[in-house]
Amino acid sequence: MEKFLSVNDVQDVNEIVQSALKIKANPEAYGDVGKNKMLGLLFFNPSLRTRLSTQRAARHLGMDVMVMNIDKDGWKIETEDGVVMDSDKAEHLKDAAAVISQYCDIIGVRSFPSLQNKEEDYADSIMKDFVKYAKSPIVSLESATRHPLQSLADLVTIRENSDKPKKKVVLTWAPHPRALPQAVPNSFAEWMNTADDVELIITAPEGYELDPEFTGNAKFTTNQDEALKDADFVYAKNWSSTTEYGKVVCKDNSWQITEEKMALTDNGKFMHCLPIRRNVVASDAVLDSENSLILEEANNRTFAAAAVLNAMLEKED
Ligand code: SN0
Questions:
Q1: How many domains does the chain have?
Q2: Any idea which positions bind N(2)-succinyl-L-ornithine (predicted)?
Q3: Which residue has the higher pLDDT, 8 or 317?
Q4: How many CB atoms lie within 10 A of CB 279?
Q5: Rounded CA gap, 53 and 306, in Å?
Q6: Which atom of ligand 1 is nearest to the CA of 276?
Q7: H or E element at residue 64
Q8: 246 CB less than 6 Å from ligand 1?
Q9: 291 and 272 fall within a common domain
Q10: What residue spans of the chain are helical by DSSP H?
C-alpha cells in the first residue's frame, strides 16, 4: 500500500479487517515487521486516540516513532505554489515533506478543514501535497474530508459484534455546540458502502445531507425515529451543515441519542469515534450502557493502524 487516504487505497477491505483482527489476536507475533523503520506522525490539529493508538501500533510492529505538533512546534507552513515568501510563513510544505521523508519510512498527517470554504477544504490539499512531495508513503490521520483509520476500526468493531449476514447500521447526525468537520461521517459512509454485510441508513436534519460521492446509494431520511427502527448499530456523529457549509444551523436537542431512542432499535449497539460531548450528542445512560461500543472502537484503533502500517511495510520489502 503506497498511501492510505481513503477506502479506495485498500485493495481488499475484507482482507485488511482480517489482518487487524489477526494482529489483535497475537500482537507479539509482529515485532520484527518494522524493525529499523521510522514512523513520523505530524499533527496540524489536536489528537488523543489517533496519536496514542498509532504509536502503540508502531511499537507492536517494532517500529520507532517520532511525533510532531507541526502547527505549534514547526515553522509556519506555506502551501501555495510559486508565492514570494516574504510574510509570516517561513517554510514551504514541499520542502518540509521532502525533508521529513528522509527521516521517516512512513508519514502520518492530520489536517482538519478550515470550515470556511467548502471547495478549498474538499480539495484536501495538505494531504495531497504530502503525497506529492514526500518520498515516503502517507497515512491520513484525518484529513479535511476523511478519517480512514477510524472507519477501518469501526468496521472491525461491527464485524466483531454481529454475525448477521446483513447488519442494519444507522449513521445519525447529533447536536453539538460547535461546527465540526464532515470527515468522520463521509469516511464512515464510504467504508460501510464497501461492506456487503452492511445496510447503511443515514439520518440528519434538512441541510445536513452529505455529499453522494461518499454516501453512494445509502438510504437517507430526516426522520431519525424511523431510521433507528430495528437498527443493529447506531453510529452517532455531529457534522456541520452542508447547505450552509461550516455552520451550526440545527440546535434541536431531540436529535440527542438517549435510552428512549435506543429502545427503538433491535437491541442496537451504540458507536461514536470520540471525543464525545456527554449529554449533548448522547446521554450518559447510553454511553455507559452495556450496548455502548465506544471503548472497543477506541481499542480497535490500534489494530486498524497496525494493519495499515503492516501492509505498507510489506510493500517495502
Ligand atoms: C473531530 C471531528 O472531526 O469531529 C475529531 C473526531 C475524531 N472532533 C472534534 O473536533 C471535536 C471537538 C469538540 O469541540 O467537541
A1: 2
A2: 142, 176, 237, 277
A3: 8
A4: 14
A5: 9
A6: 15
A7: strand 64-68
A8: no
A9: yes
A10: 13-25, 49-60, 70-73, 93-103, 118-122, 125-133, 148-161, 183-194, 212-215, 224-228, 259-262, 284-287, 294-316
Tell whether 134 and 227 lie within a shared domain.
no
Distance 273 CA to ligand 1 centre (A): 9
Q: Report yes or no: 94 and 129 within 8 Å, Cβ to Cβ.
A: yes
**Residue 204 CB: number of other CB atoms within 10 A?**
25
Strand partners, 282: 257, 278
CATH number at residue 279: 3.40.50.1370
The cell numbers describing 196, all together, are 456487503
> Is 264:291 a contact under the CB 8 Å cutoff?
no
Check if 273 has its Cβ closer than 6 Å to any atom of ligand 1: yes
Candidate from 54, 110, 180 with most ligand 1 atoms within 8 A of CB, to mutate: 180
Query: Angle 34-37-40 (CA atoms, 0-180°, nearest 5)?
Result: 115
Would you state the pLDDT for residue 262?
98
170 and 237 belong to one structural domain: yes
Q: What angle do CA 255, 114, 307 make, to 5 degrees?
A: 80
Residue 317 is predicted with a pLDDT of 42
Q: Which residues pair with 78 in a beta bridge?
A: 92
**103 with 153, same domain?**
no
CA–CA dist 69, 46 (Å, integer) = 8
DSSP 254: G
Chain segment 248-278, per-residue pLDDT in tens:
999 999 999 999 999 999 999 999 999 999 9
Could you tell me if 171 and 282 lie in one domain? yes
> Exposed e or buried b for every residue in 174-203, given b needs 16+ CB within 10 A?
bbbeebbbbbbbbbbbbbbbbbebbbbbbb
What one-character DSSP code corresponds to residue 28?
Answer: G
